[in-house]
UniProtKB/TrEMBL annotation:
InterPro entries: SirB1_N (IPR032698), TPR-like_helical_dom_sf (IPR011990). This is Protein SirB1 N-terminal domain-containing protein. Residues 45-196 form the Protein SirB1 N-terminal domain. It comes from Stenomitos frigidus ULC18. Belongs to the UPF0162 family. Pfam families: TPR_9, Transglut_core2.
Amino acid sequence: MVNKGQSLARQCFQREVEQPDEQIHLERAALYLAQEDYPELDVEAYVKALDALAAAVKERSPQSSYPLKIIQAINHYLYDELGFVGNTADYYDPRNSFLNEVIDRRTGIPITLSLVYLAIAQRVGLPMVGINMPGHFLIRPVIDEAEICVDAFHQGEILFPQDCEERLAQVYGHPVELKPAFLQAVSKRQYLARMLTNLKVTYSNQGKLEQTLAAIDRLLLLFPDTPLELRDRGIVYYHLDRATEAQHDLESYLTLVPTAIDAPVIQRLLKTIKKGVV
């Protein structure tokens, strides 16, 4: 149920993600996510911008619907003509996580550039899905015989499984075994959660508590009662001097995972909170 006290953007996001996963409009949900930071954002205008990008790719595509040909057409238009690029200079800039900024600035991080790519591919008849590879988000065509992934952050580079393993080694600085789970498709909720987790980490590292709280709140709309998010929200509430809410979330965390490795630390924090609550 939508809380009437929420911002319009939050209400729209909540309505979108309360639908069955297959009915969630991923780009709109991502734009509602951005709208909290950009209240004047025109969601429909950006959906139309994605429509226009796809129309331009269609004009440049060969008659053949062969997946690799479509991927080549998308790559040529996005990266060669328009100059979309992965933001290596300022990877943790929050703007990299907002779809409107990625479209406007033509720069982003793997998950948001992938979202632009997915939106175009879907519109030109090549359904693709996000891939839950740790440390570096990828996409792949929804084709039974296809064992390729596309790296939207690196100019739409096509990767085979061995290439994915090498990319993992680059991310972590040492060899990492490519497990089947690393190439599993993500649901739309999981996709949005990964975007929000990026924002949460970025804002937390910058000490922006209100923005960190907003990211966690939306993560809990996607996946209610997630223990680690309840714990983290409780800690943020504590630092915002919202003791009652902090106590509620931290007690909920311990109820859900009473044997958590950090349970003694959380119990001590709760004692501190209760001493100050009148």
